[in-house]
Amino acid sequence: MSICYLKTANNALHCDVIINGGGMVGLTLALLLAQADYSVIILETNIKTPIAPTSTEIPSDLRVVALTQATRQLFESLDIWQSIASKRLGTMENIKVWDQALSGSVFFSALEAKEPDLGVIVEQSVILHALQAALQHYPNVQTIYDTPLQAYQISADRLMATMQNNSILSAKLLVGCDGGQSWVRNFSAIAVKERSYDQLAIVATIQSERPHLNTAYQRFNATGVLALLPLSDPFTLSIVWSVETTLGQSLMMLSQEAFSQQLTQEVEAVLGTLTVMSKRIQFPLREQHATSYIGERVALVGDAAHVIHPLAGQGVNLGFLDAAVLADILVQATKKHRDIGYDYVLKRYQRSRRMHNQGMIYLMRAFKEGFTHTSPLLGLLRNKGLDWVDSHAWLKQFFIQKALGK
Ligand SMILES: Cc1cc2nc3c(=O)[nH]c(=O)nc-3n(C[C@H](O)[C@H](O)[C@H](O)COP(=O)(O)OP(=O)(O)OC[C@H]3O[C@@H](n4cnc5c(N)ncnc54)[C@H](O)[C@@H]3O)c2cc1C
């Protein structure tokens, strides 16, 4: 196992990989690399992120994510799945999707698909806690909080990075896991293709009058998409309501009571009266795709490389797969005594992930455009489309396999 060490010649802290950003994806990559015996430095600017790894009481988090089976398998292989699954895990056994204006609908069921479930809902703090707790066991990983990078340069066989307190870090590879506004991407001058969806997503926790029976609901109409995601308590759900920006802003101004009423109406009281239990938070929605996932001794992973619409709950699942693929490619390169920062090693990562993620970006764009378009013909098509999917078992199976990340 290699360990980070201070080299007296240039007073730089040496390691194999610097990970900029200790969010869900950055910590997953760190754990994958730690288990493969690499020395890793994680840099994280948000001092609020660490959660005492010994704490069993993790504060509840409004931000939840739907995880695919592929992500679950990854977490099982990292030995953190039990820790995640034991904390307020919501399970989707069924998903009902419908178009409000036109009454077309599809019902996906785990039973019908012969799967244990169609995905799980986890609070982000639970994932971060499990990763941070697991990383405590690896002396080859160091985390530095609140001292961001200000520059880096490439020397003969390493990357030398300067932090804002002028300390020097050196590594074979720098990985940007620093989210949609990635510093690494910007400093490396990697261009990003960007378009606003002209929507914002409102997130909150709600209670329902009737039990959710582990069913997720997703209602489309011309103004946006509203998802109700079942949490572990049978009467508690998380909402992600993606709506056109000006409508979203006026929904954010409503009182809790008025918002609850509007919400109940929007989903046609499918679970009886809905009541908002938490504050509401909003996220502007945009699509982003880095034109390259790699630079000289640099790789981008997770939202630093791609940001997609949350309507299919795939964003971070793609990021976890990026991390798994990159770690695997680095391990293979090391076995062949190759430098893990070399261009041809990093190109393998880009080839494996960029086209795949591009496909998901196009799919999300098509869904968003198709469902929010007001043209009567498109409306008819999407309505017929939903009913058609519902009546074809093989097509339902296809969508289920995609949603499970298979
Ligand atoms: C409303 C909504 C619902 C969503 N639901 C789902 C879902 O159900 N399923 C799903 O798969 N995805 C979902 N997503 C997408 C998911 O939240 C993101 O894909 C995920 O958070 C990306 O993780 P990340 O670690 O790549 O980036 P981030 O979560 O953005 O983490 C980046 C980290 O880097 C740190 N950082 C930033 N800049 C620096 C810097 N200069 N130096 C050091 N550290 C830095 C940040 O503090 C942060 O900790 C949803 C998104 C939204 C907005």
Automatic annotation (TrEMBL):
Gene3D superfamilies: FAD/NAD(P)-binding domain. SUPFAM superfamilies: FAD/NAD(P)-binding domain. It holds the Pfam family FAD_binding_3. Residues 15-360 form the FAD-binding domain. Its EC number is 1.14.13.-. InterPro entries: FAD-bd, FAD/NAD-bd_sf, Ubi_Hdrlase_CS, UbiH/COQ6, UbiH/COQ6_monooxygenase. One of its GO terms (cellular component) is ubiquinone biosynthesis complex. The keyword Oxidoreductase applies. Belongs to the UbiH/COQ6 family. This is 2-octaprenylphenol hydroxylase. It comes from Candidatus Berkiella cookevillensis. The gene is ubiI.
